[in-house]
Amino acid sequence: MPEYTRLIHNYLRHDKKFPHVWCPGCGNGILLGSLIRAIDKTGLSKDDIVLVSGIGCSGRLPVYVDFNTLHTTHGRALTYATGVKLAKPSLNVITIMGDGDSMAIGGNHFIHAARRNIDITAIILNNSIYGMTGGQYSPTTPYGMRASTAVYNSIEQAFKISELAVTAGAVFVGRQTVYNAKLLDNLIEKAILKKGFSVVEVVTHCHVQYGRQNKLGSAVDMLKWQRDNSIPVEKAAKMSPEELKDKIITGILVDKDLPVYEEEYEKVRERAKGLA
Amino acid sequence: MGNTNQPLLLQGNEAIVEGAIAAGCRFFAGYPITPATEIAEGMSVKMPMVDGTFVQMEDEIGSMGAIIGASLTGVKSMTATSGPGFSLMQENIGFACITEVPCVVVNIMRGGPSTGLPTNPAQGDIMQSRWGTHGDHPIIVLCPHSVEECFYATIKAFNLSERYRVPVILTTDEVIAHMREKITLPPAESLEIIERVRPNVPPDWYIPYEDNSIGVPPMSAFGDGYRYHVTGLVHDVRGFPTSRPDEVDAFIHRLHRKIDKGLPYIQEGEYFLMDDAEVAIISYGSVARSAKQAAILAREKGQKVGVFRPITIWPFMRGAVEEILKNVRAVIIPEMNMGQYSREVKRVDQGYARIITLNRVDGQVITPDDILRKLKEVY
Ligand SMILES: Cc1ncc(C[n+]2csc(CCOP(=O)(O)OP(=O)(O)O)c2C)c(N)n1
Ligand code: SF4
């Protein structure tokens, strides 16, 4: 049996009706593939994986895969994930969020989850737009780009998701494009295996909303743009801010160790029982 | 859990903590707010002692999300808040309704709207507790009126949430939350503790939202091998999103039916001096204490006054209220709001009895004297 057939049979739900909700050519499907390959490599049991999402095109991902899947409210995936992980630390918890989901309505939860350092892997599909609601500007829409609520072009500065994650205290932060799917597989695998709060920013394309409004061409054109504008973090270190303007810095931005919340809480239990 | 057999002097909020632990609650997420903060503080001390978990979230939206997540792993969970935080929780309360995740939300009512009167009692959230989250959904709301009852109502809240797979709201006011009364905690064996029904079929056979005679499908815990999908979208019996009218209709009706069928078990009220009453005071929470005192004083004057006190605020105790309306000539409904529960009573009053409302919204409790003065209108 070819490898992809095995993966499909093993990880996609048999009883879920396809086709999926995404537009043909959407980058979300590439991430889905990466995620499955990465999880397969980790060797984790499907029973022990909880996939939590928010609301958006990105939020529809978990329904297709054969894990414990939880499609929550807009922006709140990390809060549900926090409850799941703290109540049952043996589970491996992965969240899937959009850029609006994680940075706008869920921005506060994001920085606090990073600060708390609970062992959760947060995967963010950054397509620079609100896809599901039809192409409104998001916190990651670059200055000067067009959206359905910014037909005179966006006048806001965009968040840099990975840099924000680093500042907020995430112990593992990586960024990769869906164009570089193989590298994305590896990055996600590392993030899942990392103890503590890890973030993977997946730079992807929404050719249907963002691409069309900004005349960026087809899904293939947008993938080529990702290829041509990616700079590995090691190389970026030797470049000036001007040279890095509008580039996608890829790779692992941070990988460090800090006390993990669940382990610390175990100590709290010991202290509390000593008191009792 | 505190010592049993010896009487303790506890606050309402502390009794809620004890009740939650006795009910088996092992996860609490919250955000500080007066007059509910003591519940979070108490849980932060006690949860780790019983191998439970306490987490202070960044806001009440997060608290609500976290307790739902915890419950999905099979752990009983709770949060506690007051007006502003209760408002923030509403969207995720709706998520618990549609996904049928058991959990308990405590709302200690203070004066509103907005920041309102943080340290004063009120009963302004009666309608919010019913309709705070959007969409058609049944909800269970319990309202204790003493410290001891805070303990038992908390256990009942957990039991109902587990039995019917619903979020249950336990609401009371600042007076009950902060006042101290004597309470003897019962031995654990004497308490009826209900656990959610888990699937007893192999995972391959598990249909997570399949209807049955009670309308409450067995619930598996994440990690137990029953991998299924949980979504806030309307879903079919397998948990997958659907907009097929027949499936949507059956689903929404089942959510209502499971509660309708449970009404005799869910609804609880206290009848105080009601046997021969010709005037009834209908009242809940701290106001019911004044109502009872007023009834005692009225009877000293020869006025046959009784009190009906719904402990289950929602679903509205229609049958009980109708029966009372048919048997008295007047009903007085004192509330620390502009008239919320009284609207429901008026709705079912088919001209049976005169209905008189008594409302205070100045942050002060309704006193027995306030009620006695009102009684003059019918005597
Ligand atoms: C509380 C709330 N506000 C607004 C919405 C409407 N809404 C649904 S998806 C979405 C934006 C999604 O954008 P993003 O998070 O970037 O994900 P994408 O669709 O691009 O994957 C919004 C605003 C909602 N579902 N809930
Ligand atoms: S709208 Fe954009 S993000 Fe959503 S499925 Fe279509 S291409 Fe993908």
Describe the structure.
The complex is a heterodimer of chains A (276) and B (379). Chain A is an alpha/beta fold and 276 residues long. Chain A has a single domain (3-275), classed as Thiamin diphosphate (ThDP)-binding fold, Pyr/PP domains (Rossmann fold), CATH 3.40.50.970. Chain A has helices at residues 3-11, 28-42, 77-87, 99-105, 107-116, 161-168, 181-193, 207-213, 219-229, 233-236, 241-244, 261-275, and strands at residues 49-53, 68-71, 92-98, 120-126, 129-130, 136-137, 172-177, 198-203, 230-232, 248-255. An eight-stranded mixed beta sheet of chain A has the order 2-1-3-4-8-7-10-9, with helices on both faces. A two-stranded antiparallel ribbon of chain A has the order 5-6. In chain A, helix 2 packs across helix 7 (181-193) and helix 5 (107-116) packs across helix 6 (161-168). The mean pLDDT of chain A is 97. Chain B is of the alpha/beta class and 379 residues long. Chain B folds into three domains: 8-190, Thiamin diphosphate (ThDP)-binding fold, Pyr/PP domains (Rossmann fold, 3-Layer(aba) Sandwich); 203-266, no CATH class; 269-375, Rossmann fold (3-Layer(aba) Sandwich), CATH 3.40.50.920. Chain B has twelve helices and 16 strands. In chain B, strand 4 (77-82), helix 4 and strand 5 (103-111) form a beta-alpha-beta unit. In chain B, helix 1 (12-23) runs parallel beside helix 6 (147-164) and helix 9 packs across helix 12 (368-375). Chain B is globular, with a radius of gyration of 21 Å. The model of chain B has no long low-confidence stretch (mean pLDDT 97). Chains A and B meet through strand 2, helix 3, helix 5 and helix 12 of A and helix 3, helix 4 and strand 10 of B. Strand 2 (68-71) of chain A pairs parallel with strand 10 of chain B. Bound molecules: thiamine diphosphate and iron/sulfur cluster (SF4). Iron/sulfur cluster is lined by residues 22-23, 26, 28, 57, 127, 131-132, 206-209 of chain A.
